[in-house]
């Protein structure tokens, strides 16, 4: 299996924001070293903090991808070729190195930046060691510093972690060689290259502290920071003390916060689990009163207990099992590696071996539940690619995993025993499987058990800091698989067709940062992590969306994916804290006392998406009419809305749910399974049975049959496009420079900005690559495209500089738009002789499913009164947009509506002529005399995007072919439009 990187919209948006914020190149400088071949060209406003850029992206959304592509972009557009990536730790450095040097990343970026490569130079601690009595610079440092801009196809990148950057080796000047003909200090040699510095995890490089001072010593022309968290800065004292996030320009130039990441489905949802504990054990709680290098003081009630270094916690309470002592030191650790801090709570029962076994057992149950779904892919159509399922365990100590003399520790032995029992039960369940995919899963499980029982098992593996340099071949194979063989871990079979069964990974926090694998579906913590660690960071290793066995990344609309996170009872408030962290990450702070300017701005901004004419005055008038706010925008305490009494703030959220949608994580995105929150929505089977005959027809697979004229249309459109009558398609491409100047006019000053070509050389592409991408993106024959290109280039006086990325993009976009416009009616739906399952219907059993995940109905929820006609148990209602979806759901309907409701994603799977499938949003069954009418509604904003209009045309054509069966279809932009349409159908005014 090969991972396929795909360009995601939020990543493209981040790159666009960087391009917009980039200060441009300084072409007017009289600096005599401007053309120094060992250094970057000069950037405008260089060395100024206000020119630096901040990009905020949540964990798991691809910031490494964005800053890697940014380097290619800045090199292509402006000739910048020397970048330093500064990361906090060796593990993050290894993760970055692994991504940039991976074959799949190189392949992906080569499609956009032909013949350009990144030369990655990573400096490690041992690289400065003296050899043969001479103190020389590491080869990687020399390569970076002495590379010249004459090699136009190579980007030089220096990768360094903060410990290495702050080391004496970087600052000393007694080396036995020089760089750039005179520099004897590594940090000064780097500074001479005028680098662009990328800071990964900026909260670990706060301004004014030692590690940021190291950054400044490298004299960066420009700094671009990428992270989910940024450092804070404090000013004033006492009551005047103010703490705010330290952004270079006051705010990030791109902000993908945690709320949007979860609500938009850019990361997995999260389920929190923990084994319960008897009240007697749970109340047996000790608090850390003081933790010093040589002394630990615990308190319980009014009593205090003191331990010195090496003394056992069991001396205080026998329930502290596992021979745990106080190790002390600067990190104030227990012997199991747990760092203690003041006021930290310890429950002895969570240290017991049998309690950790219970967490393992529950984690394996979560693993196999996810694995069955990911392997079998129910309701995803026939032969949907499988998804490899991985689980990650964080444990107390390496000795519990790796025993003495190459043996197994007690934890590994317990894990094997529990896993063996669960495998045997699962194998027995699939013993009589008839379905081919179930038979395949049975074979996979058998291979897993066989490997587990062999001398050199390949089912689980561990990676610990102590493993570095181990001579044990089995250990090295495990470490290699975990750190470097991401694609192997994601694959089901090796090159010889044998099952790859390794999918359970163990670590002692070594994999907490830097390492990631998108197919981690379960994380189990067999130890608490302390109170100071970010909850989002802890779940971060499992947030990324998964890939299937073809390497395709599955978004949440394609496949609902969730992370199960197992913790101990002592962290049972984890879900609450995690939700708090996510909501705190929103830039808009909700005020329940008064309507603030930023709350007004957000509501107006969101309402304009469905009603472009909506204004702030309209909002305030509406709230005034509903008696929600005072003249000074304070919320009233007692407001009546819809027959209910509530606060003014709650009334605002009822009237404008958009406010909380963009400032609070949706409830089902983080679930505590031991709470009462249920995110499975049950179907009201008696209502769905009224649609049974209808669904037998909808479940029948349909094939798109194009008219015979389509191929001729494609060729005609292609010929017209290549003629380029408006001279807008074939264009020349040069790097751009942004020029700004301050001008004064009638006493006021303003900035005038212009764009100009950066240099005289044009950017071009290899012709073979150009044709290959063009053929792939248009489905046109290569021979036809080649002939059309030859004619076009001849017309352009044989100027091959027109063969570039801009021309390519123009050709692809123009052809596809014109071709799709021409063929949008040149096809028909042809029924096939088999049915397929969907998210709502099991075609094999010929019946509706019992329930669906709430998220396939909508991201958000709203309480409502029950309606016996609704297709699901309610409240709450699930919806994706407040207007018109929520308004449609909240309306009461007359007696002629027998059932109605929102359709889950992929409930029908109407084939699209431009690939993929689509499903309308709503269904209404309307009784009209002796027959029934089935009204299908697709909701869109008034200012709908081009793709939304295409979807409407596709759905309209599909249901028009089924009109004889009583179907009526309409795209609606408002609740009133739906209401009027229902009235007309009930009264027989429409045919």
Describe the overall structure.
The protein has 31 helices and 40 strands. It is an alpha/beta fold and 991 residues long. The strands form 13 sheets. The protein has a 7-stranded parallel beta sheet, with helices on both faces. Helices cover 32% and strands 20% of the residues.
SSE blueprint and pairings:
Layout: H1 9-21, E1 53-57, H2 63-78, E2 82-87, H3 90-100, H4 103-110, E3 117-122, H5 139-146, E4 154-161, H6 162-165, H7 168-171, H8 186-191, E5 196-200, H9 210-217, E6 222-227, E7 232-235, E8 242-245, E9 254-256, H10 258-263, E10 269-273, H11 279-282, E11 286-291, E12 295-300, E13 303-308, E14 326-328, E15 333-334, E16 345-346, H12 353-376, E17 390-394, H13 410-429, H14 436-452, E18 460-463, H15 473-483, H16 486-489, E19 504-507, E20 520-525, H17 535-539, E21 562-566, H18 574-584, H19 597-607, H20 616-625, E22 639-641, E23 644-646, H21 648-655, H22 658-661, E24 670-672, E25 680-682, H23 685-688, H24 692-698, E26 700-706, H25 710-723, E27 736-745, E28 748-757, H26 767-778, H27 782-795, H28 805-823, E29 827-835, E30 841-842, E31 847-848, E32 851-853, E33 860-862, E34 877-879, H29 882-890, E35 897-902, E36 910-911, E37 917-918, E38 922-928, E39 931-939, H30 946-960, E40 967-972, H31 975-986
Parallel strand pairs: 1-6, 1-9, 2-4, 2-5, 3-4, 5-6, 10-21, 10-24, 17-19, 17-20, 18-19, 20-21, 39-40
Antiparallel strand pairs: 7-8, 11-12, 11-16, 12-13, 14-15, 22-23, 25-32, 26-29, 27-28, 30-31, 33-34, 35-38, 36-37, 38-39
Helix pairs in contact: 1-2, 12-13, 13-14, 25-27, 25-28, 26-28, 29-31
Pfam families: RE_endonuc, ResIII
Domain Helicase/UvrB N-terminal: 5-231
Keywords: Endonuclease, Hydrolase, Nuclease
